[in-house]
Amino acid sequence: MTDLAVQGDALRQVAVTVRAVVADFRTAGTQSHDAAEHVGHAGLARRVVAFADQWDIHRERTSHVLDRLADAFDAVNDTFADLDSETATQLRCAANGPRTRPRGVVVEA
User: Can you give the chain as a three-state secondary structure string?
Assistant: First the structure.
């Protein structure tokens, strides 16, 4: 029999980290515009602003994908946690006999 181990805390932490990256990523455009004000040269400032503006759409697309990735990490973690809990309940019920089965739990042989 093959064992499957899912480290739920690690998955949850990765989701938190990805969301933190997304938050930082989304503020990058604002930071670029702020930096343009401080470069000391009007032509360079325009180039910095133009670059930041061009990246807005790419930044938003990437942020959306990263948000979905974080959601997927959470969904995988939740699914395996539910599966683990349900399996444990079924094993307890099978070991203790029919009188101790919680309502709604069906254990098939």
Answer: CCCCCCCHHHHHHHHHHHHHHHHHHHHHHHHHHHHHCCCCCHHHHHHHHHHHHHHHHHHHHHHHHHHHHHHHHHHHHHHHHHHHHHHHHHHHHHHHCHHHCCCCCCCCC
